[in-house]
DNA sequence: GCGACAG
DNA sequence: ATCTTGTCGC
């Protein structure tokens, strides 16, 4: 594990100071090799405990490689903009358990599309020195003309904040609400969009994150922090034909603050 | 001071 | 994120 390390036990004020200091070290352009293994990281909460899971898949097949998880006592409240300080400890504990470092990690949250341009994907991507992309389900900052976003899968539209493009809304499947993609570390927005879209298999949420979400949900109800790839195989099925229903919903899309 | 506000 | 049943639409 390389990169900037600091304690997670900080105050909100110190957390913001750390963001301002560390954001300068984020590599914004493409500085990554071929992506043969992509990971998805997510966290669930059960009382005072955080359950994190990281799932790795092969590219381009998207077949399951590894599944690791860890539980940690929650020590930081949810504060918009400081999500990393709440989820970071558990995510990092899980990350340490990976046998093989992924070539890219998708996070459930923003990267540069963050008020300090240092969202979860920037922070952990930098800290672990792994190319990272932020894939959030709602907007935290900035504006995007969703009414001008194509309804079909692959359509995307820039997210602008304070005069600069910080990310993009991406239609990951026909007729579903878009997700918000932004560069985390070692990737350009164009590459982040391409890679995130490449991980989609018919559902709104990219496969790595969909499986990581299923993993934490399973561990939350089953307990423990150990699970095998087989536990997730039931979810590797492609979605049914639901185009019509999905298209109808797309016209009513109102993400951002859903 | 008044909203907005990843998960 | 989490608390929670049914329900609208394909």
Structure write-up:
With 258 residues, this protein is α+β, with helices and mostly antiparallel strands. It has one domain: 2-Layer Sandwich (archaeoglobus fulgidus dsm 4304 fold), CATH 3.30.2170. Helix content is 26%, strand content 23%. Strands 3-2-1-4-5-8-7-6 form an eight-stranded mixed β-sheet, with helices on both faces. The longest helix is centred in the last third of the chain and has 16 residues, at 207-222. It is globular and about 45 Å long. 46% of the residues are buried. It binds two DNA strands through strand 1, helix 2 and helix 6.
Please render the helix and strand layout as text.
Elements: H1 12-22, E1 37-46, E2 49-58, E3 64-73, H2 83-95, E4 104-107, H3 120-128, E5 132-136, E6 156-161, E7 164-170, E8 179-185, H4 189-198, H5 207-222, H6 243-250
Parallel strand pairs: 1-4, 4-5
Antiparallel strand pairs: 1-2, 2-3, 5-8, 6-7, 7-8
This protein binds two DNA strands through residues 42-46, 78-81, 83, 86-87, 107-110, 113-115, 119-120, 134, 136-141, 180, 241-246, 248-249, 257.
Give a brief outline of the structure.
With 258 residues, the chain is an alpha+beta fold. Helix content is 26%, strand content 23%.
CATH level-3 fold name: archaeoglobus fulgidus dsm 4304 fold
Give, in spatial order, the strands making up the sheet with the most strands.
Answer: 3-2-1-4-5-8-7-6
Please report which band the strand proportion falls in: under 5%, 5-15%, 15-25%, 25-35%, 35-45% or over 45%.
15-25%
Secondary-structure element sequence? HEEEHEHEEEEHHH
Major sheet: size, sense and barrel closure?
A: 8 strands, mixed
Q: Structural class, judged by helices and strands?
A: alpha+beta
CATH class: Alpha Beta
> Which CATH-level-2 architecture?
2-Layer Sandwich
The helix tally amounts to: 6
What distance separates the N and C termini? 36 Å
């Amino acid at each position: 594990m390389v990169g900037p390390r600091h304690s997670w036990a900080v105050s909100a004020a110190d957390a913001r100071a750390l963001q301002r200091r560390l954001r300068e070290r984020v590599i914004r352009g493409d500085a990554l090799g071929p992506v043969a293994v992509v990971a998805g990281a997510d966290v669930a909460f059960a009382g005072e405990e955080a359950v994190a899971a990281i799932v790795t898949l092969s590219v381009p097949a998207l077949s399951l490689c590894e599944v690791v998880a860890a539980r940690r006592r929650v020590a930081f409240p949810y504060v918009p903009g400081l999500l990393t300080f709440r989820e970071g400890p558990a995510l990092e504990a899980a990350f340490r358990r990976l046998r093989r470092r992924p070539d890219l990690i998708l996070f459930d949250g923003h990267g540069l599309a963050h008020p300090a341009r240092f969202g979860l994907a920037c922070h952990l991507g930098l800290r672990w020195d792994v190319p990272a992309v932020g894939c959030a389900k709602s907007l935290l900052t900035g504006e995007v003309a969703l009414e001008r976003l194509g309804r079909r899968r692959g359509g995307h539209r820039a997210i602008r904040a304070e005069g600069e493009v910080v990310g993009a809304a991406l239609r990951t499947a026909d007729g579903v609400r878009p997700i918000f993609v932004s560069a985390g570390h070692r990737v350009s927005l164009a590459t982040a969009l391409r890679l995130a879209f490449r991980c989609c298999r018919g559902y709104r949420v990219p496969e790595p994150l969909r499986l990581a979400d299923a993993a934490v949900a399973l561990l939350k109800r089953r307990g423990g922090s150990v699970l095998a790839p087989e536990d997730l195989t039931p979810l590797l099925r492609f979605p049914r034909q639901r185009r019509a229903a999905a298209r109808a919903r797309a016209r009513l899309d109102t993400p951002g603050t859903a």
